[in-house]
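Session log. Operator J.P. requested a structure for one protein chain; no other inputs attached. Running the standard single-chain path with token output.
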Amino acid sequence: MELQDIVRKLVGPIEAVGETNADERRLANLKQMTELVDRLLFDIHGAAASKTRPEASMRAIGEYASKYLQEIKEA
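Structure written below.
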């Protein structure tokens, strides 16, 4: 099982189905998922700070994180 499958199973469905009670639960699930994504993006932003480091391994992490965040911004 992949990590995204585990998260989806833990959080629960987020797609609306048009039934009030089910959609209320799904909205709560969506709020949990967006909070998780926000925290993960914050971590990735922190890693991006290393993009100007002189150490090649640190710079590679920073550049990868920075490029990822830029792609999200452009999407």
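Operator note: Residues 3-74 form one domain.
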